[in-house]
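Summary for the steering committee. The consortium agreed at its last meeting that each partner would contribute one worked example illustrating the joint modelling workflow. Our contribution is presented below. We chose a case with several input lines so that the handling of multiple components could be demonstrated. No manual editing was applied between input and output; the record is shown as generated.
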Amino acid sequence: MTVDVLIIGAGIIGSAVAEACARRGLCVQVLEAGIPAAGTTAAGMGHLVVLDDNPAELALSRDGLARWQARQHALPSQAEYRACGTLWLARDDEEMAEAERKQILLRQHGLDSQLLTADELRRCEPALVNGLAGALRRPDEAVLYPPVASRWLLSQAEALGAVLLRNAEVNCVNDEGEVSLSDGRTLRAANIIVAAGNQSTRLVPGLPLKPRKGQLLITERYPATVHHQLVELGYIRSAHTNDGDSVAFNVQPRATGQLLIGSSRQYNDLDSGLNWPLLQRMLARACEYLPGLLALQALRSWTGFRPATPDKLPLLGRVPGCQRLWLATGHEGLGITTALASGELLADLLCNTRPSLDPHPYDPARFDTWTAATPIQAVEAATC
Amino acid sequence: MSDLHTEIAIVGAGPAGLAAALAVCEHGRAACLIDDNPKPGGQIWRAGLTAGSRSATNREAWLTNPAIPAELTARLARVEGLRVLPAARVVATQNAGSLLLEDASQARYLHYQKLIVASGARELLLPFPGWTLPGVTGAGGLQALVKQGLDVSGKRIVLAGSGPLLLASAATLRAAGAQVLLIAEQAASRQLAGFVWSLRHWPAKLAQAARLRWALRGVPYRAGSHVLAALGKERLQSVRLQQGQHVRELACDWLGVGFGLVPNTELLQALGCALQDGSAKVDALLQCSQPNVFAVGEACGIGGVDKALLEGRMAGLAAAGQVEAAQALIPARAHQLRFAAQLAHHFSLDPAIRQLADAQTLVCRCEDVRHGDLLAYNNWREAKLQTRCGMGACQGRICGAACATLYGWPVTGSRPPIQPTRLGSLLQLETTEAPSS
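What follows is the complete predicted structure of the assembly.
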């Protein structure tokens, strides 16, 4: 049997693409080598946030957030969706000016936000250190628990007829619509979508994708002392540097009463073990903003790898030069927020319908490396 | 806070750790002995309330624990080069050759050249309907509570589960004035008879078993009997038991249930030491797969106090450079390992024990995950991600072993810190470099 769409990877991106395709009546198969939603999806914070470093990032994250908001009531309670809002924290006048700039930009895109003075911020989040200049509050942003949300999306797709194939480790793919599995089977599909996160580079050589390591730590349960997702305005600087290790204050109150503490970014460290000096830097940063953290019990810490492209925008569209081979990966740290937007966009492209967002900024062909290489021959030569 | 340095670090001051410390120090080497309890002795020689000052930092006062054989205490009191760190926990192993320790007031690094892990074991607690009711506890757990002052005099107590620990607990409870109504051993009488027969090769253990049985004369000890449910509204009122073909209910005040022991391997895993069948994989001289790390006692396989003492001594000798003396003990250890194999064989769990939980029975108490929630999954990682099973305060220490027994899931992916740790402790930076060894 030839299916319409064969999706490689059952993380949140693959699941969202599967659900969007299944909803359009396509016959969908999802391949998972390990455990659904156990890769980058399971490692992240699950902060649904609009980032505005560039118009394309803003458009995709705004659309993604709106789609989660629209479906929040359909999510199972274990997905722990909470519209706690985000506070972008300003330490000084310079960062306060950044908050004002951000507010104007967001307003231009129809997004509501409020500037908080130092006093208002203290009343709103008394656990924060004294002396902050203020904050920008984005009231409608939310948090969720990604593994459950991701698995829910996949089960929605399954209810619409999509089929999940477990233990399906893919050896290679080609533009003839063929997928070879490590157990010797060959599957065929009208279209193949590689949504395998960092693993995608194994299937599509030359992909401009690098793992960007992150570390998180979660505390034991406590009575709520933090009410919003708290992020320092300097976060953008950390998230958008292209080299070097960086940390930024980013704390999330979980529905359980736990605090999830981030964040760090590292290239060139492929070891999944904790980098202790960097963890200490990250925690020290967190304690600068929330001094009360020092006395809390740390329960668990872990690492994960964001699939990052050079311009921090995802790869959504055909592999350059290919007809049947598509990409849905490279979401860096925004994959949870933008999963639903990415799924819709890719499904529209697949069905030849006009997407609601301009797809060009996410088109994999935007990278020069692709035109120089002849990817599909490379795929066949390298892997089949 | 300045870092500590030692030649040989020993984690755990139960029989294995104490024997290791003695062997190290009697051969002129320096050791640092760390234990998370205020007093030495581990679980088996747990100190009672009367055992001297609980905040003792000087070694002699710390050693005061009548549960520990007097000769061992006396020799430990005499040696030089032994430093003790009571009520301290190993929380992280950031770099090879150093441990991050935390106690009530501070966190600091301990740098070592060799490490002996004598981390002991915990009880295997398996879910059954009602097991989370107040009044239901582990069999060893109840024994520990009594040693720490719980008054059980005149209380009606049922012990159930498997293994010799049930008898030891019963003896403690009886000595404390409790009325032990029944010891329900899940192993069949045929298995028990086989075990007792095998004890002829270990006369000391046979004598010990006979002494225990004498102390427990009049207490019914039923083989082929297991708990079905703990009953009660707010608190335990009675227990329902399977006895052969019959089901009976017994009114009681406390129910202690333990299905055997599970090695504590969290530290070993954090160090990257290989495990085999749930315990540390060691060579003939107790060396782990990581260099300069030894595992002794229950941590490298459940086998009781004699095995623990011997292995502690062997690893202590080996770490102190007395390799020949350690090698000389290999045959004696083989004898103890045969005993361990007898234990595992004769007290193996009846498959019915794996079927006790119903859909509503909690499996993960920290995160309120029920047996019925877990049936949709076929591996620990996925179940954990989707249900939060094992993500709570105990980090799967209890439910991980339960899931391994009930569902056959190997428990994977333990994550730092080794135990819940103050954030401030993790911020502790090493103040000196580890000496190169």
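Chain A touches chain B through 30 residues (CB under 8 Å). Confidence is low (pLDDT under 50) at residues 372-384 of chain A.
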